[in-house]
Structure formats: C-alpha cells, structure tokens
Write a structure and sequence with these properties.
Elements (H helix, E strand, L loop, with lengths): L6 H4 L1 H16 L4 H15 L2 H13 L4 H5 L13 H14 L1 H4 L3 H10 L2 H23 L7
Helix pairs in contact: 2-9, 3-4, 3-6, 3-9, 6-8, 6-9
C-alpha cells in the first residue's frame, strides 16, 4: 500500500486542535446516539473505512443495535427504526456533508430549528463538521481499519 504522511503525527498542533474540537463535542449536550449516528453516516458518505469501522464499534459499545447500523445508509426507507429527531440529525448530516450539492435546504433547516433549540442545533452542525474533518484526514493518509 502507498505510504502517505500521517497528519496526526507530523502536525501535533493540528492534532491537538482536532482533539479539542472532539472533546467539546463529547461534552456537549448531544446524546451519544446522535453523536454516533452523525459519525457513521458522514463516514459512509465520505467512504472512510477507518472511521466507519471505529464509530460502528463505538456505537455498539454505547448500546446501538446492529439493525440500525446496517440500515443506516438506507434510513429514509425504514419508517419505524429511527425517531423523528434522529431522522432530522441524519438529514442534516447528509446536507452538511454534501453541502456543495444544494446547501442545507430551507425546509430541513426550518424543521431542525423547530425541533431543536439553537444550542443543540449548533452542536449538531459542529459535530458534523468535526467528523467530516476527521474523515478527510483519515482518507488523505490512507488510514486503515483496526484488525
């Protein structure tokens, strides 16, 4: 396999900043379920095998079910498996991850702002931005899933 730099090793100040953001997200008001759904779904969209592997295992440790993880990439097709709030979180995750496609649709933003208070909605967006940054670091460095 091609050898690439590991930004986490070559740029310790950037690594510290990334872990600082991750620490903020973990201490925020976001539920563990919302955090893990965001991490897994964004990582699926971005094709980050390293992060999909890590966050799927983390979600299972936090009580997530196999069915919900396996069907996550088809969440829109499954009516009763995800709550209204989770569906909004997943839709926001997709919109922010693919922001260059159409931004965040006004209807989705309106629904999210009516469902979550300003702080929680802000925390959702920051968590999405955070995992997208981690995905890009891992993919750029060709990080591999744990064996």
């Amino acid at each position: 396999m091609e050898k690439r730099i590991n930004i986490l090793e070559t740029e310790p100040a950037a690594t510290k900043a990334m872990y600082g953001l991750q620490g903020y997200i973990e201490k925020s008001g976001l539920t563990k379920t919302h955090q893990e759904l965001i991490k897994i779904r964004a990582s699926q969209i971005n094709g980050c095998a390293f992060c999909i592997d890590m966050h799927t295992k983390d979600a299972l440790k936090h009580g997530e079910t196999i069915d919900r993880i396996v069907l996550l990439n088809a969440w829109r097709e499954v009516n009763d498996l995800y709550t209204k709030e989770e569906r909004i979180v997943l839709a926001l995750t997709e919109a922010v991850t693919l922001i260059s496609h159409e931004g965040i649709p006004s209807g989705l933003y309106k629904e999210a702002s009516e469902t979550f208070d300003a702080n929680y909605l802000s925390q959702i967006i920051v968590a999405i931005v955070g995992i997208n940054s981690w995905n890009r670091i891992a993919i750029s460095g060709l990080f591999q899933p744990a064996k």
